[in-house]
């Protein structure tokens, strides 16, 4: 693959002074320069970006003004290099970063991606590689970190994920392993923590979680819950356990919403303070000796409202703030053992969107494995050029 990449790079010649043809390539922020033969684009075309770019460019593939190109476009580096045969993209395709270094190295056949595909970080390190057939991912695809370590390995069939996929932590340990069928989760599913313990584990069928599942609580450490899914939602009794699997409390769900909880089991008698009825009330978490670890509101069957967290075996608050659908929102205070605020952090919905170490896009975390990896959508394309063929969107979507 890497040999092919360097071979492809060598195909692209230095910038030449070609003035036979000037055309917009998708929108008025990009102009391609190349040769015209019998009224059709032919040979190598270099596409340059406008500097500064218009905020609202006009979609266009029409001829461009050469004088406008020379005055307003950055000619230091092309953002694309495309080869044409009789007006149709055929042959090597190169996309560059603004600094001129390669971003995507690929081939086009009849205007769609075909063959080996490589994507690179801005520093030149390999980001991902695989093969494309008729514009769609095919076979094994791998993604790498900037340091060269593998992040994930997936298998595709006609552009859809198929079979087993795996992802890794930066140190190389397994982070997740899942199975796909026709682009949907299907089969065993497991996601691990950095210490290799299970974070969430279960089974999918046709993209829907089914059967027995186990998951580690995120809002408070030291607890697992296990139970069954029906029609894609938690249903019936789930068991709250400690890390060793000892039963602590029953949770009752209906269509994915927590409806009620049973009595908390501990070695010492507990004066139950919390009560949840019909998905609403106050919930308490205790350690095995009956000390309060956390307390807060449950509304609409999930953690909502103000929550308090405590130092072990004490009544001293370690943190407090608002949860919304089990997610931290707003300003959270973190306290010293003496009660002084030692830190404040503001959370919002946007900050919940991040990338995991696997490089796969992540949205808000969810307790529902239906949301996949807490929201990962592993079949999203990283480059935005798959399946588009030769159209306005091919370059317009690249935001030049």
What report would you give on this structure?
The protein has 400 residues and is mainly beta. It folds into two domains: 2-136 and 381-396, no CATH class; 184-371, no CATH class. The chain contains three helices and 33 strands. It has helices spanning 2-11, 66-72, 392-396, and strands spanning 21-24, 26-27, 30-37, 40-50, 59-60, 73-74, 80-85, 88-96, 102-109, 112-113, 115-120, 126-133, 136-144, 150-157, 160-161, 163-168, 174-181, 184-192, 198-205, 208-216, 223-230, 233-242, 247-254, 257-261, 275-277, 280-286, 292-299, 302-310, 317-324, 327-335, 341-347, 354-355, 361-362. The protein is elongated, with a radius of gyration of 27 Å. 29% of the residues are buried. This is Toxin-antitoxin system YwqK family antitoxin. Residues 352-373 are annotated as: Disordered.
Question: Can you give the mean pLDDT?
Answer: 83
**Distance from first to last alpha carbon:** 28 Å
Main beta sheet: strand number and arrangement? 22 strands, antiparallel
Q: Please report which band the strand proportion falls in: under 5%, 5-15%, 15-25%, 25-35%, 35-45% or over 45%.
A: over 45%
Poorly predicted runs of 5 or more residues: 1-19, 350-400
Counting DSSP H or I runs of 4 or more residues, the number of helices is: 3
Looking at the structure, what is the overall shape? elongated
> What structural class do you assign from the helix and strand content?
mainly beta
Radius of gyration: 27 Å
Helix content: under 10%
The count of domains is 2
Secondary structure: number of strands: 33
Region (Disordered): 352-373
Protein name: Toxin-antitoxin system YwqK family antitoxin
Pfam families: MORN_2
Organism: Algoriphagus lacus
């Amino acid at each position: 693959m890497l040999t092919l990449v360097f071979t492809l790079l060598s195909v692209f010649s230095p910038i030449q002074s070609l003035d036979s043809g000037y055309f917009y390539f998708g929108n008025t922020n990009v102009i391609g320069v190349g040769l015209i033969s019998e009224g059709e684009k032919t040979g190598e075309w270099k596409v340059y970006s406008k500097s500064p770019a218009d905020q609202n460019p006009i979609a266009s593939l029409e001829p461009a003004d050469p004088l406008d190109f020379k005055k307003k476009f950055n000619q230091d580096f092309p953002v694309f290099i495309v080869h044409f045969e009789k007006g149709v993209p055929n042959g090597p395709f190169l996309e560059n970063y603004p600094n001129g270094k390669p971003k995507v190295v690929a081939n086009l056949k009849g205007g769609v991606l075909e063959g080996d595909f490589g994507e690179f970080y801005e520093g030149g390190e390999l980001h991902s590689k695989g093969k494309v057939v008729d514009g769609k991912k095919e076979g094994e695809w791998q993604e790498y970190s900037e340091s060269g370590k593998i992040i994930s390995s997936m298998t595709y069939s006609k552009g859809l994920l198929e079979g087993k996929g795996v992802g890794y932590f930066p140190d190389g340990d397994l982070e997740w392993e899942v199975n796909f069928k026709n682009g949907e989760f299907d089969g065993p599913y497991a996601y691990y923590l950095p210490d290799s313990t299970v974070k969430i584990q279960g089974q999918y069928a046709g993209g829907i979680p089914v059967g027995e599942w186990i998951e580690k609580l995120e809002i408070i450490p030291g607890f697992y819950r296990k139970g069954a899914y029906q029609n894609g939602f938690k249903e019936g009794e789930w068991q709250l356990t400690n890390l060793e699997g000892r039963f602590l409390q029953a949770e009752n769900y209906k269509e994915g919403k927590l409806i009620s909880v049973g009595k908390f089991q501990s070695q010492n008698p507990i004066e139950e303070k919390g009560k949840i009825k019909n998905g609403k009330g106050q919930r308490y978490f205790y350690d095995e000796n009956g000390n309060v670890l956390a307390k807060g509101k449950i509304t609409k069957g999930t953690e909502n409202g103000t929550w308090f967290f405590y130092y072990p075996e004490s009544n001293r608050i370690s943190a407090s703030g608002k949860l919304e659908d089990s997610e931290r929102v707003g300003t959270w205070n973190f306290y010293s053992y003496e009660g002084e605020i030692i830190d404040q952090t503001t959370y919002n919905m946007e900050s919940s969107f991040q990338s995991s170490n696997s490089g796969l896009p992540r949205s808000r975390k969810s307790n529902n494995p239906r949301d996949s990896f807490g929201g990962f959508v592993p079949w999203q394309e990283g480059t935005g050029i798959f399946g588009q063929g030769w159209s306005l969107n091919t370059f317009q979507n690249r935001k030049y």
